[in-house]
Structures are given as C-alpha cells and as structure tokens.
Amino acid sequence: MSTIASFRNDFSTGLFANVKNVFWKYVIIMAVYVVFAMLLAATVLGSFMNVDMMEMFSANPQDFLNELQNNPGFANQMFTPGEQPGIGTIALIYTIGLLVGSWFINFLLTINDASIRGYKESVLESLKKSFSAKIFQQLANIIVIYVIMIALYLAAMVFVFIHWSVFILALLFVFILLTKFILTPAAITHGNMNVFQAIAFSWKKINFRRALLLFLIAFGASIALVVVFLIVAFILGVIGMIPYLGIVLNAVGGIFLYALFASMMYGALSGLYFRYSDDDESEEGGMAIEDHLVAE
User: Block means of pLDDT (10 residues each) for the chain, length 296 residues?
Assistant: First the structure.
C-alpha cells in the first residue's frame, strides 16, 4: 500500500511510514539549520556585544551560557551602550527571519512530498526544488493567517465585557476556526496552489466537525508533548552541566528531538492534505468525522 493510500485508509500508519522515510533527512536538516542559526545569531550579536562580554564568551562559553540562563539582567549587560540594535535593524532581521521560516516550511514539506509520492529524491534535490515561488506564497500565507488570527482575537475580546467565561468560549471558538486553515501550507507545496486557493481549499475541506476534532487531538498531543519536553529538557539540562562536552551532547540531543517533532508535525500536515485532497463530500452529506480520522 502506498503512503498516500495509507493516509486515506489508516492515518497513523501513513504518518509513521512517512516519519520512518524522512527522519534521517530531518536530522541532517536540523543539524545544518541549528549550526546556521547559531552562526547567524553570533554574527548579529557580535556586531552589538561589548568587548568584555565577547571575551567572557570566548574564555568560557559554558559559564557565559549559564549566566545568560540564570541571570535575567545579564542580557542587558551584553550590549555596548548606544549600540543596541535599532528599529530598522530589528525590522530587517525580522523580515529575513520570516523569509527563512517560509522557505524552511516549504523545504520540509517538499521532502515529505517526495517521500509520500514515492520519489527517490536526495536532500540536495529537495533543497533545490524548495527554492521556488512557493516561498513567497508561504510567506503570504503566514501574513494572511496572522492578520485573520488578530482580527478574530480582537472580535473575541468584545465578550470580555459580558463575562470571562463567555470570553473563554469565544476564544475556543476562534482556535477551532483557525484550525480550518491547517491545510494551507501543505496545499501550497503539495497542491501548487496560491495562498488564496490554499485558504479556500482548507476552509472547504476542514469543516467545523473536522476542525473541532483536529483541535481536540492537537490539544491532547500538545499536553503529551509538553510532558515529554519537560522530561527531556531536564535530562539535557543535567547533561549540559558537563563542561564543554555537555554543550555538544545537549545540542545533539536537541537536534534529534527537534527532528522527531518536526517529522511528525509536518508529516501530519502533509498527511491531512493527501487524505482530503480527493474528498469531494459536502459538509452535510459526507462521511462522519470519526470515519475520516480513525482507522477503519
């Protein structure tokens, strides 16, 4: 059975099959991404960090990181007075971050696309394909969804004046509505749609019942992930106390953890797209929500 068929017949089987196929690619990507992010952060911070702080970091990175983590006021001492990043610099960094993030989403989904469709494609081939106009569609999608989210949140704020419990219910309703847009990133990459086509596709395919169930599943999974992350963070924190070696082991453990989390999260997004891409049932006349998400 193909991975696409697995997603449509037994979602969990398709998800784990895809995770198995892409996990080591994700590990490589996360390792490169972490190194790149650290170099970029070091370059940016180094442009504004005062000499004493740079010498402290060079002499003992472990002590520097411990102080940064444990002393809230330490970060304020890092920069030379008058040389903190200006608004223009911050805006530029934020814009670059959005572009890199949009490309990264497209890249990971491109890897999933090859895996799910059964293509034999290397990481470098997927990397080459990921540099396309889809990056700007992903960027536009982030901006549009963010604007929608802010608008819905502001609308929900009106209910604060009625009662806090009504506001909580309105906020839950907002989260469920936002879940209706969950297919948009995958629709852009897998379905070659523009942002408005992707939004329309996701809004149609994820009806309210599906959105409600997906929200509940995501909520339950989030709680489980928080518990797992707390346990792993504690273990990595203890390991990180080992001078020098702890930093390396901490980074390696973090890379594997992020790779697992990303492969499952983006695999689920891809799987939902392929599960519903040929679903033409109407909102009222379609299959029951349980039949869509639970193995038959």
Answer: 83 92 94 80 64 62 65 61 64 86 96 92 94 96 96 91 89 94 96 95 94 93 87 78 73 87 94 79 37 39
Please give the residue range of the domain that contains residue 140.
3-293
- When divided into structural domains, the chain yields a total of 1
Secondary structure, 3-state, the chain: CCHHHHHHHCHHHHHHHHHHHHHHHHHHHHHHHHHHHHHHHHHHHHHHECHHHHHHHHHCHHHHHHHHHHCCCCHHHCECCCCCCCHHHHHHHHHHHHHHHHHHHHHHHHHHHHHHHCCCCCHHHHHHHHCCCHHHHHHHHHHHHHHHHHHHHHHHHHHHHCCHHHHHHHHHHHHHHHHCCCCHHHHHHHHCCCHHHHHHHHHHHCCHHHHHHHHHHHHHHHHHHHHHHHHHHHHHHHHHCCCCHHHHHHHHHHHHHHHHHHHHHHHHHHHHHHHHCCCCCCCCCCCCHHHHHCCC
Q: What is the DSSP letter of 9?
A: H
**DSSP H helical segments within 131-194, as ranges?**
134-157, 164-179, 184-191
Beta pairing partners, 79: 49
Read off the amino acid at residue 22: V
Whole-structure pTM value: 0.79
- DSSP state at residue 49: B
The answer to whether 206 and 240 are in contact (CB under 8 A) is no
Query: What was the pLDDT predicted at 288?
Result: 39
